[in-house]
Structures are given as C-alpha cells and as structure tokens.
Amino acid sequence: MFHLARRRWVQIVSTIALNPIVPYFFAGKIVQAQSKGVCVPVLNCYSCPAAVGACPIGTLQHSFAALRFRISTGVIQPGLYALGSLGIVGSLIGRFPCGWFCPFGLLQELLHKIPGPKLGIPKILNYLKYAILALTVFILPAVILDAVGYGETWFCKWICPAGTLEAGLPLVAANADIRSQIGLLFIWKVALLAAFVLWMIVSMRPFCRTVCPLGAFLGLFNKVSLLRLTVDSDRCLGCGSCSRVCPVDLDVPKQPNSPECIRCLKCVKACEVGCLDYQFPLHARREETVAPADRDR
Amino acid sequence: MRRWATYSSLAVFVALLAAGLSLDEFRTAVANAITICLSCIGIG
C-alpha cells in the first residue's frame, strides 16, 4: 500500500502541498484562506507565508492561552477541535505523519546527510518531549496569564525552531515593519534554530526525538493505532538489519510499536526475510523474499 | 482487545472534533491562522 521506496518523494510533495503559495514568501505576508482552519498533523507553522493549513500545536496553545479569558466572556472553546483532529490522526496512523509528511522531519533527514562525525542521542532525552508537551502546550498557556487574562503560546514563542525557519526568517527578510520589531527574543530563537541545525547534522532527527510535542502526542497512539508494525518472530533471523536503519535507534523486533517509532517503515524495507510488516486495513501481507531453506540459517 | 481500544479512541476523538466544531472552534482556528503570530515568529 505505501510505496516504501518513494518516501522521500512523498515528503517533498507534502512539503510543497502544505506550502504551495510560494510568491507570499517575497510579499512579506501570509496566506489568508479558510483552509488555514484545517489542522495538518505535522509541524508546519501557520505563520509561514505560503502555508495553507494550521499547525495543531499552535492551534492548541492559542485555545489554552485564551481559555480563561473566553470563559470569563461566556465563550467555551477548550481546544476540542484541534485535540479531536490530532486524536483521529493518531488513532488511525500514529506517528506516520512524522515519517512521511512533516517538512521539518524532511529537513532533519537532509541535514543529517551532511558528512561528518555522527552522534547518538541518550534515551533519557526522549522523555523531554512529553514534559514540553504538557508544560508548554497545555499547562503554562492556561495558567500564566497577562493583565487582560490571556496566556502565551509558550512552545511557539520560546522554543519552536520550525516557526523561526518557516515563518520568522522569511517574514523578517521580506517585511520591513516586522524587521523593525526584532529584539532579544528573535535573537534567542535564531540562536536556538542554529543550535538545532548543528545538532541535526550530527544526530538523526534530534528535534523529533527530544523536543517535538506533536510527535509526543501522536506517539502515544502508536500502540493502539490502526497502522501498526508486526514482527513474525519465527521468521526473524536476528540479523539486526532493521535496527541498523532505524532513524530513532529502536530495537525494532522488541519494540515495533514504541511511541518513538516515526513509522518511516525503513525497517520493513530493510528486512530481507519479510518478518517485519505493517498492518493496515486493505494492506496485503508481504510475500517472503528468501527461500524457506535459507530461513533455517 | 487492541482493536477495541483503537475504535474507542477513534470514537472519542471524533466526538471531540464534533464538539469543537459545534463550539465554533474552526472559525477561531481560522482567525488565529490567518493572522501573523508575532510570538511564533520570535517578535514578541
């Protein structure tokens, strides 16, 4: 069903499809279309000049930041729309969008191709993204309020390097009014983006693995989603070829549905005996790719 | 058991989405998304 060899093309097409109005990059303004109410399940800033969809993390933060103010005015909007959108995607395909559709994931994979020393990421850092999700997306925006009763979009404001790259830099470059307002916050965000870019060159997908609140949320569904990996232990040779290609350093046969798995399905492609496969409605099982006699090795 | 969890999860989030739409959250999402988010781009 998923053409594994074409994943890079799917990532490129997805990036263009999510940001198709390229002339806006030069106009210093952003697209204003009704489609921007649709939450796309990837980290693609809706302040990116060419974007035609909404970042669900940004939408959630805005909902929580305005929650108490809206309640005080009799309006109840607790972010159910964004939560529902994300939960439906998670229930169906888990973190599949991370591996196949996310423009920021594509950037990280391309940067990691730059030759040089490569480093792993301590597994303990994987838990950081859950703290970031809870604190900067849900708790702080709803709890710390200004005089009017509004909270801040903590993740977008202080952390998100995707927003800096896709929206901040293009808008600052093309819009003189915005450029005139640059301050310490912008310098902080550009420095953070630069640090992430350096980390992306030496480690595979460090942002997805340690910081991304969207990946943290979708990963919670990997164990229950309709799309899931299966391992036929009887056929597994224990050769480790699946784990060697895993971009997030999983021991794939032992944890095929880990919350860390971005569902890139590289492991399925790498498995020479076909003991790894994915389940999804309408997907036919892979055929064996080695003769039965070879399996007894 | 797992299939039960999958479809329960799906049903819950479809209900949340429907509730959000009925609370007019789509219009609010559009209003947020068509305005340049100054904090998102690092201006403040």
Order of helices and strands of chain B, N to C? HH
Residue fraction in strands of chain B: under 5%
Largest sheet of chain B: none
Count of alpha and pi helical runs of chain A: 16
End-to-end Cα distance of chain A? 30 Å
Largest interface, counted by CB within 8 Å of the partner chain's CB: A-B, 58 and 35 residues
Distance between the termini of chain B: 48 Å
In spatial order, strands of the major sheet of chain A run: 1-2
Number of beta strands of chain B: 0
What is the N-to-C succession of helices and strands of chain A?
HHHHHHHHHHHHHHEHHE
Tell me the number of helical segments of chain B per DSSP (H or I, 4 or more residues long).
2
What is the overall shape of chain A?
globular
Your description of this structure?
The complex is a heterodimer of chains A (297) and B (44). With 297 residues, chain A is an all-alpha fold. Chain A has helices spanning 7-18, 24-27, 56-65, 67-72, 80-93, 96-100, 103-111, 128-143, 154-158, 161-174, 176-179, 184-202, 206-210, 213-219, 241-245, 266-270, and strands at 228-231, 276-279. Chain A has a two-stranded antiparallel ribbon with strand order 1-2. Chain A is globular, with a radius of gyration of 21 Å. In chain A, 47% of the residues are buried. Chain B is an all-alpha fold and 44 residues long. Chain B is elongated. The interface between A and B is large, with 58 and 35 residues.
